[in-house]
């Protein structure tokens, strides 16, 4: 019997790969210097404290070394990166006002359509600046704020000053420091107390210019007893030069509030994705991270939950699919600081064709966090023997009144399961595909519907031609 | 004389530096210590009686006399290099092809004020289809500062089946630094027990390479942390041969203000198809001040393998404790029983009753002193 | 009588070890055959060889299904030709629901697009007939199912896929009385003059409600005796060991 392995085809990326050739309105020189940082701040007409913060971050950047762990970042040369590219438009609140070439890009990605159907608000960033932002009237009336960070810095300066890079200080690591120096764009969300935002808010980040860096900053404050779902999507066309993404996400979840933060990352494979995300959760609050990592050349991403208040909870659900030329180093960090805190981690990775998937995590339980629980399950599926799959968890537990469980599994597609499925008339290729999709399903079902569909397309497997 | 050893217990793939687990550095001070001069083949321990035939059997162990080679302060990387430069005891254990030894071979290192510095190298070669049990134990005869630093290299030829049992019950002022490197040949089986129970500063490393097809290894570890003891363990199974199998089981109990780091790695190398590996760690924590760090790595470069990790960290279940106490045990007795129950399946595998009793006695002593 | 399955001088081995030897069996449409035998006789091996389990090698002989030599066919090709195996231990497959799986299978076997709505209706009716909670349609395939639930799920699949030849491998084992009744009702409902059933079992529980035409005793990889229903009762009373097999 012919038992050749079915080739599971690559993701069809063509719709992401279309790039626009329009000139930018303004862009800085390649590289990183005091002058460039000052130019960005002046051009954006920022308050002077922000310029000072940027320059201080730049110094921190120079002081810090590259991480001594994780994928090699030797390919990155900051001299080649353009840290600020302003598209040829100001921010609009109507798609009609956006230049055709930008609008087309977002149309292809289905953003305006999704907005009509199932979203409370939409932000769209193109290279370094947000080009579109809108929010439903009724939410505005309830006092919900959803705008771009540049606007927020002017209109809500005090709030921004109080929270900006306080949760993730520039000293955290080299790329956070870089972010602090050259950040631009991103979204600001504030949900007032006892407000439920029924439909999700979504920001979409698009990098278009070759060699550009994107350094958006997302700041979300969910006040007491409120609830919101925030979605971010990312993509870029493929170039032969490296692009860099070093965004920063700071989430404040107040007492009894809950925030779900979903990400579908589908950067092109010339992107270094070094993103930093962190949430601090007060009493009885809850943060849920849903994370799908499919694109990029190298990703290092470990959303962190700081469970500061008693009864705070975090949930991390993540999937990554590493294929040819990709190193996806993802996972999560959780710090249990208070009693009765609870965290769960459910991570799955698929690797093939030389791709490298790493799950990396850190669970810390402090002496104060009595009666806390943490449960980690991570599973990896390898589709061939040219790829790698590594699991690198750390658990640091400092009190005895806890229940901590960690399970990790590495495996392959079971031949018996294939036989079982084939005995019902289904071809071997389809049987394999079913098992791969099934492996991803428990994570996919956590995604917003349109993203679950997108993910299925991303994991899409060429069934045609292999049947019969 | 001060000696600094770096790059001990290196994590195969490093992770966040702030956890301080990527590698360990230790400084050893030999001032006032006296090199080990006793004969570990002799039954010279008053505390335990090992069966005479077990001692006799040990005659196939060859000892090399060597004095401390180097007296100057040094700074080296790795335990192996350090032992190579400083060893004061060297043993070669050679088991011939097809030789089957029914009785265990025993090396019994007893440390005291006259024998307070033991730096030993043990080389074990197990020939084709040979079978033997080797027991190496480290005891402190009395309180006091003892330093043991050892490197054991064991090689199993095709079809060999060796049980290597190491028991460490050194005094709490002592430092114990032990590295084991095991290679397992085709169809060979290495069963190891590392009972790391004593000493105040404990560094234990075991690196097992399942080099050939159908090679197999089991590594059972028990450890107990009390007072301000520092435990640093790094166990690794490397799957190279096809259809190889390697299992690590670790059981621990933590008390007082001890600090434990347990790193373990299952590494499936490309080409190790059909291999299976599992690691399980169970930690019973009896103290709210103990630090408990676990780092279970699962590395894989081969599709056709099955690898699994499971860690369970938690307190004694309140209902179990209540059940035991309702039968008349006080809390301390109940806790001891639970720790014993967890360790027993591993201790039971040790073939000499005298050693088993010594271990049970040690555990009960330690738990009695738990505040 | 139309011949459905014919096995001629079959030898099959796994890892070089011969499990089936010189086995001959002929099954016509409309017949129910029972294969009994002690543990290790090769009963499950026979079922899996007919279904084309890749780990078994047919070393000699052939399997003819509707005049087609299927000895070299892949498992899915055999299924498409109308062979069905109810597994003794069904695999658990995460992430795909019973309903979606079965709809995909039905589509593959019939070569048609299966309408979501009508399929759901059919599935629900089949499930209720054999007293299988319809909630299981939305659960992942066999994941976390009890032994009895797995067996019922196999029967549901048989009824939905409607094969020409159904091989039931120990479908009655591990079931309580109610479940045996539900399963045998399913079998009787399936049974027709256009199909055939091979029941592999080591006891006679199922035979009180499903009337067999032939009973074969399989031992040591070959069929030692063939008889009618009375042979099954003989075994029920005296066991395999007392039988003069050769």
Describe this structure in words.
The complex is a heterotrimer of chains A (468), B (371) and C (246). Chain A is an alpha/beta fold and 468 residues long. Chain A folds into two domains: 10-301, no CATH class; 415-468, no CATH class. Chain A is built from twelve helices and 25 strands. In chain A, strands 5, 6, 8, 9, 11, 12, 14, 15, 17, 18, 20, 22 and 24 form a 13-stranded mixed sheet that branches. Chain B has 371 residues and is of the alpha/beta class. In chain B, strands 3-5-7-9-11-13-15-17-19 form a nine-stranded mixed sheet, with helices on one face. In chain B, strands 6-8-10-12-14-16-18-20 form an eight-stranded parallel sheet. A three-stranded mixed sheet of chain B has the order 2-1-4, covered by helices on one side. In chain B, helix 4 runs antiparallel to helix 5 (353-368). Chain C has a single domain (3-238), classed as P-loop containing nucleotide triphosphate hydrolases (Rossmann fold, 3-Layer(aba) Sandwich). Chain C has helices at residues 43-51, 75-81, 98-110, 116-129, 147-161, 177-190, 229-238, and strands at residues 3-14, 17-28, 32-36, 56-65, 68-69, 83-86, 165-169, 196-201, 214-219, 222-227. Classes of the chains: A alpha/beta (468), B alpha/beta (371), C alpha/beta (246). Chains in contact: A-B, A-C. Strand 25 of chain A pairs antiparallel with strand 20 of chain B.
Strand percentage of chain C: 25-35%
| CATH topology label of chain C | Rossmann fold
> Architecture of chain C, according to CATH?
3-Layer(aba) Sandwich
Major sheet summary line of chain C: 6 strands, mixed
Give the helices and strands of chain C as they follow along the chain. Answer: EEEHEEHEHHHEHEEEH
The biggest beta sheet of chain A reads:
13 strands, mixed
Q: What would you call the shape of chain C?
A: globular
| Outline type of chain A | globular
Task: Kindly report the spatial arrangement of strands forming the biggest sheet of chain C.
Answer: 6-7-8-3-9-10
Oligomer: heterotrimer
Runs of chain C in which pLDDT lies below 50 for 5 or more consecutive residues are: none
